[in-house]
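== Sequence, structure tokens ==
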Amino acid sequence: MAARKVALCVALLSVLGACSVFAAHPLPTVSAIDVPRYLGTWYEIAKFPNWFQKKCVGNTRAEYSLRSDASLQVVNRCKLASGQMDEAVGAARQIGNASSPKLQVRFAPQWLSIIPAVWGDYWVIALDDNYQWAAVSEPGREYLWILSRTPRMDGQAYASLLLRLSSLGLDVQKLELTPQD
């Protein structure tokens, strides 16, 4: 029983310590994004493994388009082990002004959008000047995606980006490359 209490205390202190590290070093974003330039197709180059993409085996991409209400439509696609393509349609909204790099996304039905928990943070934390690649994460640094306008990213640009992401406190060793056909 005492060992269980000690383990629980250590776990709690670890979580609190991680929270205080992130509070002391909040995740910086790029200064601004030009949404019209960000629209279009982005190919997933690498990601932190996550539960909602477990079924994806490759060819993962996202398409962003402007909706009539000024929010964004997000269409995520990936290849399944069966060879078929899977698709998830969602929405994104900017948090803050029209050039804010902080967005929120949801893939839950529209009628659930009033519930804050269905929205996930989508922060652009690195972006090529020519909008050819981007890195997206969220304040807790639990998720990370490296995106490119093409299915393959220049090796030198990728290596440089990994150094930058590491300096932001992201564990780039957790990255999983996304296979492309």
Remarks:
- DSSP finds three helices and nine strands in the chain.
- The beta strands are 40-47, 56-66, 72-80, 85-94, 102-106, 120-127, 133-137, 144-148, 176-177.
- The two ends are 53 Å apart (CA to CA).
- The chain has one domain: 27-177.
